Amino acid sequence: MRVFTRFSLLVLLAGIATSVVTSTWLPAHYGPELLLVGSLLTMGFLLAEQLTIDVDVKGVGWTISFSEIPLVLGLLTVPFEVVLAANLLAGLGAQVGRRAAAHVAYNAGVLCLEIAVPFAVAAGVNAGLAGMAPMWFGAAAGTLTSSLISCGFALAALHVLGGGMRLGAGARLGVRTLAVGLLNTSLGLTGYEVAVSTEWGWVLMALLCTGVLAVYRAYSGLLRDQRDLETLGDVSLSVARSGQAAIRRPSEADSSGPESSVAEWAPVAERIREQLNATRVVLRLCLDPRGEVSTLVAGEPLPETAPREGASILRECPMLQLPGSHVRSFRTLDASEDIRLALRRRGAYESLVVPLRGTNQMLGAVEAHDRVSRWRGFGRADVRLLHTLASHLATAMDNRRLLARLRHDAYHDPLTGLLNRTGFREMTHEGLRAGTAVVLRIDLELLTTVSEALGYAWGDRLVVAAGRRMREEIGPDVPLARLEAHSFAILLREYSRQQAHELAEHLRAVIAEPYPVDRLVVEASGVAGYVSAEPADSEPAEHDDAEIDVDVLLQRADVAVRAARNDADGVRGYVPSMGQIFLRRFQLVTQFRQALDSGQIEVHYQPKVALPDRRVIGAEALVRWSHPEYGRLDPDEFIPVVEATGLVDALTSFVMERALVRVRDWLDRDLRMSAAVNLSVRNLADESFPDRVSEALVRHAVPPELLTFELTESSVMADPERSLPVLRRLRELGVILAVDDFGTGYSSLAYLRRLPVDEVKIDKSFVLGMGTDLSDMAVVRSIVELGHSLRLQVVAEGVEDDAARDKLVQMGCDTAQGYLISRPLSEERFEAWLQARTVREAGSGKWYGEGQNVCTTCTTLTLRNQSHV
After folding, report:
1. 413 near 481, Cβ under 8 Å?
2. Nearest Cα to 99, choosing from 376, 379, 386?
3. Contact 394/358 with Cβ under 8 angstroms?
4. Final residue belonging to a domain, choices 391, 410, 429
5. Less Cβ around it within 10 Å: N or C end of the chain?
6. Which residues constitute the domain of residue 790?
7. Cα-flanking dihedrals φ and ψ of residue 315, to 5°?
8. What would the pLDDT profile of 369-402 be if each residue is shown by its tens digit?
9. Domains: count for the chain
10. Report field, pTM of the whole predicted structure over 0.70
11. Which tens digits make up the pLDDT trace of 797-847?
12. 559 with 595, same domain?
């Protein structure tokens, strides 16, 4: 601006010098009539300046006006000094009235040159063409130079301000300016000749001027409308592009500041400033969810006293106190004291201010300060344009906020405000492209108990609290997600496995700290698993992959969490062997139903022998799976998987049906032997299970006392309120109920008295240790005595040698089961074992416990002298 100030002073000096020289050179004729003519010329110049066509090019504005008409009339009628005075009074008076003092020097110099040079040119042309051309010829030539002077100095000012035009564009602008000047000059000369030489010529002159003015105004309006439409289109496109950029991807930590978003609005502010031809446009936008205001300035910088970032719009902009969304125009001349103070703080004399109001809140404001054009301030067209632009901006910002909210809801969990699974997947994709990353998954445990005791709302509060604790520990820039229920995931960039393990242990300890709930303190725990995107954690076939799927990483982290539940410290890192284990379990689950139908699942039998007479009184039905790919599977591998997936009902029904078929076959062969079937937790929680058992007994015509159900203490105590009614109904059917693995769980006198059972089975771990551990022998003896005191049959499983059998006989144990007698055998081998290892004896009254009669027509099987297989 200092360069332009020096340039303005030079223009002023040139104008004064030219005026002085012209005044000295040209003769002056003064008379009383000149006062009236001078006043009329001044009014003519003022009127011409009010009816202008504004041209704004690269931030520099000037006007194409009708000033050539009063100028050519002045050249033909009055002395130079009168025309110069009229032009200066009209031009500077209008400018000073609008307090546009910044350009007074430049405009005064141009005003002087626009009068002095045409008079000099007109005098020179008339002197050179004396007698050869009419007098108006010199006046026409001088008037045309006035238009060229205005255009030339405007281009010079544009160059000084650093926005120079190309030579071709400048030449075209000069030609158009000359064309407009020629038209105005012709109009003025024609009107002068008509008014002088024709009666009532001034009437024709008035009609002609009115028509030309109408054409000019229509053209100016069309030109302005076209530029306004272009501006609206540009602004809408800029807002749309910035909005698309702003919501392209989810925020990592939901705390990104408004600065990056404000920069996207710079083209919008600059486009508005260019169209309004303002020295400055200020955008104050509420882009921050906390309501803070961000300020963007296009054009001249704001003074130090102007309101800055973070200020409240209504507090710092008293111009917006009025309701509605209309444009307010303020000038220092007629404004109230607080408005004048606000304008002075902004370094402005005139301002257009319009609020940006959304559906339910203030979105911001637009301020336009001081029009650049020479004399005219902001007009009605500027007000209409700014109002339309503000409406478009407010609508665009509202839509943008709505899209941002929809985008946020799509990528964030509504309960905690953290990323959801979709958002975490997007962030993890970005993290994998940026470099190495570790996916850490943490599960909050025991929430089911809390929810049942306090309600699910309190469980949700614990989830929110756990997420807040982890956010405070890892910081705002680390992506944290709630995947589902009580499971969280964290993306760790540039973390080693050791660092991830240490962080997992720390976070697990943090979320395990007590949670205050009103007057209660709720305890919780957590397990953590992590997986690295490096090849060390990838399957061998994936080492060469350019990119690892995010879902694969999440699945592996979940596998690590499951493994961590069996770890002492509750933290595990994923290794490929885990994937193989869980893949195998998944295959077993999906193939189990087909295995039942295809005969892969078999029932084996392990005999049970009464002590001390060695009578075979029954067998325990045990399930076996011969897998076509994995071979013979251990029951401890597939039965827990089957139980966890809800397929155990099908398995229990299958074993029970095969056992009842076998019992019925024994009865048909005059052998009274029972079969024992194991029950799971799910069976005891199924209220319809006793009905299915009753129907199966009737269908196979098997006495209920020949069917035994074995259940563990833990399965009953998992939900005793549901298990006990089922057990009582089974007891009412007449089936035998046995407690398996007695001595390892809740074993107590009160426990046995509560359960409606007929038999206890001593866990094999105590029976195997009787020969070497006196405490195990004491436990076995205690169980035998306890069972007999409650009139229960006692079965010892795990009998593998004669010494153990003899000790059990001495203790009075009723039944033995174990490898000393036989391993579990398939149906065919079990029948062969019966034939080879037993002898038939006639029925001998009572057996298998007190009060249970045998069929006197049936025979019993007694072991031969061989004691083991």
Report:
1. yes
2. 376
3. yes
4. 410
5. N
6. 588-863
7. -75, -40
8. 887 754 457 878 788 888 888 887 888 777 877 8
9. 4
10. no
11. 999 988 899 999 999 999 999 999 999 999 999 999 998 888 877 654 333
12. no
